Amino acid sequence: MSLITFSNKSDGDAQWISVSDLMAGLMMVFLFIAVIYAKDADSRAKNVTEIVNEWQDSELEIYRALEREFKDDLPRWNAEIDRDSLTIRFLSPEILFKAGKAELTNKFKAVLDDFMPRYIDLLISRFDTKIDEVRIEGHTSSEWSSSVSRSEAFIRNMQLSQARTRTVLEYSINMTGTQYFTPWMTKRVGAHGLSSARLIMQEGVEDKKRSRRVEFTIKTKTKEAMFRILDKISPAVEKSF
Length: 241
Prior knowledge:
five-stranded mixed beta sheet, elongated
């Protein structure tokens, strides 16, 4: 049997420990570490579950509040609420803008006059600490003049969608009903034109009318929750001892 020698200078005697005894000792140490780590991992897993549940409950609460506030208005606005993305989607392009233009129609201005003050007031009064951003998103169909290439059509639609969302944001901030909320809106509300990047498809075919839309999407503080989760599940061996 292979042996490892350890010298003890205090008494000059040689102490001999067999490799099998040494391995048995190391296994006990590793087992001890594993038990400690397993307990710590279980605690972290519970914390992660709590964070995820809290986040999901918050988003469900926001969705239900939006539904209660706007359910009677959505049909006349030809709008809908998407539960998963917390998006209110306006789907009548003929009401929103004139074809190829960024100016708001009078009908869409009337909708925004009714919608925006109630929307922003609801978010601030009930969910301020849970909201990271409100995105005003402009979307187009893939159509443009047949005389331009597909890539050029995308770029021109990008310019149009960006101009439209800026117009919506400018009008929303400057309207009388939201002036009290201007400081909050300038920090939390952004305008994003996305061209035809997110078309609405029906049975594999582009729905050109529904693709031309304006959306108001709530982004909750998911990133903060994810960082908290990563902090909980990341190995912290030094904390185990």
